[in-house]
Amino acid sequence: MKAIILGILASFFFAFTFVLNRAMNLAGGSWVWSAVLRYEFMVGPLLLIVLLRGNLKNLLLDLLRRPWLWLGWSTVGFGLFYAPLCFAADYGPAWLVASMWQITIVAGSLLAPFFFEVVSSDNGLQKVRSRIPVKGLWISLIVLIGVAVIQCQEIQHLALREILLGVLPVIAAAFAYPLGNRKMMEVCGERLDTYQRVLGMTLASLPFWLILSIYGYMSVGLPSHQQVIQSLIVALSSGVIATVLFFTATDLSRGDLHKLAAVEATQSGEIIFSLLGEIFVLKGNYPSIISIIGIGLVILGMTLHSFNSGIRRKDESVSL
Known about the structure:
This protein is 78% helix and 4% strand. By secondary structure, it is mostly helical. The chain has one domain. A two-stranded antiparallel ribbon has the order 1-2. Strand 1 and strand 2 form a beta hairpin. It is globular and about 50 Å long.
């Protein structure tokens, strides 16, 4: 249950991303700087946290020992996750981007065969290829049905170009985030804690952000003061607080694909918090009755995931 609660808290702080990115877009800010500035601002606070915990040396040694693994999977997990999300904010409202992002719930389950888990057998502990958690996947589909219901009315008012450019990048990001996160969990193992892993991935993704910032400077110039301030808020809320909370929750679920799927399902809370942000921050419209029904389905899916995870833990403790 602790991992589920941390996941829901993470979804609250992650919602700042969708609302403020849309706000920056409406104010004329470039999606490039929205993406770049978040990760540049994340370095300082994370570096301070790891330094105060006395864990910086071990992280730097690991980065030097396996630079290509860090560079590759951090670029996937952070770069190919966040840049498409910011790009999509230029073409769709916060609720659309946040709701489409929930595909990551199913994406995380579908990626299971790309990973191995340790199981107990007659020959001792063995590594076996993970299987898609079918039961958890069916519960995740309830969440996605809720997302579809929320969108069914609003999406009729969007042009095809807005739908494609606001949806396809989010689908790519939805697969990149859990893939990069899980691969780095494998790479780090028990050697590094959550703070070290988040800082390491942030540092290793900096070359990607440097290239993107050069493109941003050449295409639109420097960001405005307002965009810098809003990006700082996103970096602290979503980049530091939410990321650490979510990665802690996934660390608590390490080796259990069902629990991991449940934790990733909590991120559907982002759509609820984004809707509230759209209303109270961006002065958007209140959700319709149909949208409220969709929100109810999302909450139902999250609850079933938590219940299913709790039942499995109880069964496992009895079998022991």
